[in-house]
Inverse folding.
């Protein structure tokens, strides 16, 4: 199915195929390519001029390409496509860094399994085609490891430049993910602090110095925190706690990082508002999963969650959106 090989599904059972921690250490030891030096921080004024410049709203449904891992998954892009009526393709892996997607000499763990679906298209081929209006990148959620061992800003820049070589007017976005629920120091506090420290400053500002051009932000991690705190304050009808946004294994074991259908809906809505500069009308409350099963949401729940999405995006100038 291209050049990648699967190292072993057993890593997932050991907790190593997740978005950080021991997995990142395993990948560092297995990779043999030299790691490029990080670019410097771009001049702040020059960076902010691009980062905070509003984009014009698109004229209609776009075609979107996603590069990432299981925090993109299959459900979220499928929900987003139904909300927008747009086309999309993706390339995914298990806990995969942008470096591993880019470098031919590195393995994308889980490549065959994660891309065994009709929406897969090899990333380089896809972007070279010029078929896409928007590229959405994300990085492994262990942000310290991704910066230290995977040179994240360098590869944001590489993917952005490749996308614009195929289509100069493509819009490029970085999808902010989140920490594990059991993160020391608190999931919400660490996810919130990471936005400025890592996703904006260390990733996007350094990527700008490496020639990425404008890359805007999809603040999904920040939205997820806002929704979880609102739920636990009794402000989201039918959603009593943060775990509702995260999946549970068939054996009933809570997953600390991967999304439930509700979480996928919320993150898809966040993508929609950033991409299309508005909330969908009416709010989509009946969607289909990629496997054909239905997902439904009470209108009052959807409305309360949509307000959190709108508020976060309205307060973040780096999205390219002015609500």
């Amino acid at each position: 199915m291209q050049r990648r090989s699967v190292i072993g599904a057993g890593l997932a059972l050991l907790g190593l195929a997740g978005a950080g921690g021991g997995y990142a250490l395993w990948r560092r030891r297995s990779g043999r390519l030299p790691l490029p030096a990080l670019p410097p921080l771009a001049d702040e004024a020059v960076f902010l001029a691009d980062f905070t410049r509003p984009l014009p709203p698109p004229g209609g449904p776009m075609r979107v390409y996603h590069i990432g891992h299981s925090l993109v998954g299959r459900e979220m892009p499928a929900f987003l496509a139904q909300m927008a009526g747009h086309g999309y393709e993706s390339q995914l892996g298990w806990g995969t860094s942008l470096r591993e997607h880019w470098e031919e000499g590195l393995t994308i763990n889980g490549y065959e399994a994660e891309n065994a679906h009709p929406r897969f298209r090899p990333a380089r081929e896809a972007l070279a085609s010029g078929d896409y209006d928007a590229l959405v990148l994300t990085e492994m959620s262990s942000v310290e490891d991704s910066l230290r061992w995977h040179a994240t800003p360098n590869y944001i820049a590489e993917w952005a430049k490749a996308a614009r070589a195929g289509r100069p007017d493509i819009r490029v976005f970085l999808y902010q993910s989140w920490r594990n629920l059991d993160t020391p120091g608190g999931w919400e506090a660490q996810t919130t602090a990471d936005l400025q420290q890592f996703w904006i400053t260390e990733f996007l500002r350094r990527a700008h110095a490496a020639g990425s051009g404008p890359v805007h932000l999809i603040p999904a991690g920040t939205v997820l925190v806002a929704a979880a705190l609102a739920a636990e304050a009794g402000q989201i009808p039918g959603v009593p706690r943060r775990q509702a946004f995260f999946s549970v294994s068939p054996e009933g074991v809570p997953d600390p990082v991967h999304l439930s259908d509700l979480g996928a809906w919320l993150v898809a809505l966040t993508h929609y508002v950033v991409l299309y500069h508005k909330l969908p009308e009416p709010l989509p409350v009946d969607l289909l999963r990629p496997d054909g099963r239905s997902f439904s949401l009470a209108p009052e729940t959807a409305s309360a969650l949509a307000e959190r999405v709108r508020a976060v995006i309205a307060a973040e100038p780096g999205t390219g959106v002015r609500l």
In short: The radius of gyration is 18 Å. The chain has 13 helices and nine strands. Residues 187-209 form the longest helix (23 residues).
